[in-house]
Amino acid sequence: MARAKVDFQIVDHGTLFLLYANTHRARQWVDENLPPDRVRYADASVVEPRCIDDITDGIRAADLDLEFSRVRPPS
Fold it and tell me: Residue 34: is it exposed, middle or buried by C-beta count within 10 angstroms (0-12/13-18/19+)?
């Protein structure tokens, strides 16, 4: 059975990623695996490109869903 909501939404802004934890399980994973002094922007955790692969690997290992999107640069 498919989940109603994707656990994590990851938005690629080019120079940084915004990681949105959309479910209780996702927020719990963030609390347990990301540093408490992480940079936040509204409801998202800000992630540097050099760290995103390790974070997404950990999310997948916890059997949580991911959805990626990319912000289009201005033309």
Answer: middle
What one-character-per-residue DSSP string does the chain give? ---SS-SEEEEE-SS-EEEEE-SHHHHHHHHHHS-TT--EETTEEEE-HHHHHHHHHHHHHTT--EEEEEPPPP-
Could you tell me the sign of the dihedral formed by the alpha carbons of 48, 62, 60, 69, in that order? negative
pLDDT along the chain (75 residues), means of 10: 78 96 98 96 96 98 96 78
Global pTM reads 0.88
Query: Which pLDDT does position 1 carry in this prediction?
Result: 44
Residue of 21, 1, 9, 5 lying closest to 66 (CA atoms): 9
12 backbone dihedrals φ, ψ, rounded to 5°: -85, 115
